[in-house]
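Something for you to look into today, if you have time. I want to see for myself how the chain folds. Leave the record below and I will have a look.
***
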Amino acid sequence: MGVQGWTFLIVGLTFALYIVVAIASRAKSTGEFYVAGKGVSPIANGMATAADWMSAASFISMAGLIAFLGMDGSVYLMGWTGGYVLLALLLAPYLRKFGKFTVPDFVGDRYASQTARIVAVLCAIFVSFTYIAGQMRGVGVVFSRFLEVDITLGVIIGMGLVFFYAVLGGMKGITYTQVAQYCVLIFAYTIPAVFLAFMVTGNPVPQLALGGTDADGVGLLQKLDGMLTDLGFGEYTGYSRDKLDVVCITAALMLGTAGLPHVIIRFFTVKRVRDARSSAGWALLFIAILYTTAPAIAVFARTNMLNSVPGVAYADAPGWLKTWEDTGLIAWRDRNDDGLINHAAGPAFAGKPAFVFDPKTDEPIRGPHGQRVLTNESVAGQNELYVDRDIMVLANPEIAGLPDWIIALVAAGGLAAALSTAAGLLMVISSAISHDLVKRVMHPTISERSELRAARFAAAAAVVGAGLLGIWPPDYVAAVVAFAFGLAASSFFPAILLGIFWKRFNARGAVTGMICGIGFTAAYIIYFKFLGGPKEAWWLGISPEGIGTIGMLVNFAIAIPVALLNPPPPREVQDLVEDIRTPAAS
């Protein structure tokens, strides 16, 4: 049985598992639909939170980023894990004691303002759709390679599965499905890493093998540094990114983690207040298993690729390269007509691959060496090979020649990571529309049955929107997700933090801060990523991935003076804040 057969088997079994779990834990009330009836244990919630948060960006894209960025990629490791420390210490217990369903629920009641609630709803939807674009892109990448279907069809299949268990089960179904998905994704991520670590260094522990030596006694990092510098790249272990940008990206990811609605909502599902902090600790432990493995996978993947591709004739190139070329995620342009693959620093051509197809057969047109012909304009430089960063983890077992069942397991893990997070994000969008807009603003007297119907309809509409973003994604997976973290940091984090720890903070300050923070951040990202703004014009050298930190400072700088210039919130609101901060007996 080949890779495709194993993939159909393993992916089919995992999908069947998710469906059975969703049916067994389907929601029967709004409380179960929104917060799983507030009866989830800390360990289960920790696993569900880890699966919810370890998205396609963590599983598929992060190690690929580190493989290409080297030490510069460490900002993703530091930012995404550090955010959970902030979340556990600053927010989770207080929000659980607040005891409602959603982040806009907290904002609306804390500031006694429907305007604040509506602004929070809009921010939640904007952040969640930005985030979900990366997840559906990841689903499409996995399906296009391992099930050999078009990326668009892959996204549609993923939409169908998420639609089933998100609309049927709500947060209760999603929670227990995410527990299963965590088990799948963590086995899929670590098993290949153990195989590779043992093959390369003789040590089966990836975290230790990273600092080990190969069969020739040469350190892995030292060897990779030499291979890269020989090809004209910078050293893997050296920093090249501006230090201020490193700080800003790390902070944006940390603060964004602590402000993401689909992460925060998980802490509304536990039984008691103290369980919120406990489940954050469990989540951090479960996340650390993957995040401490990612740097090792990045080194293995980049080393294996450099060992198998540069200087090889395309006709003799390994099978994995030609297979991934058919997905459109690897492309080769022969600059000097010698038939050899020259991999060096710099772009291989302008933009992402655009292939030529025969108008009669719709088959790709092949060049003299058998490669797919490109329409991209040539650019100056020596590089001939384009490699999409999102394939490094998925292609790594193939590059290393691991058994077919491991390759299929990695595919199932990538799907589990993307679908688990997509489901959590859809829950945020659904609850924001049905509970915060319909129930709390537009139709306060709506029955529970009608509200549950509205929640399911909103989830269904969100699935369609998510699928469209997956078919036409704005960027590679981790970049899109990084934008979402920046948007969350610049909008929700100040409003939640000040709402908990400053009784004097009022609705006008919160609303003004959220609008200005997310508006500034979104405008910066749109201008430099989608409207062609030049990199040289980055403010103080801060990239779009890091601008959320500045957006957060803009939020604070505007929100605090506005709050001080306006009357304090009513006494009952200040009493609510005092009660949230008072330690609970259970």
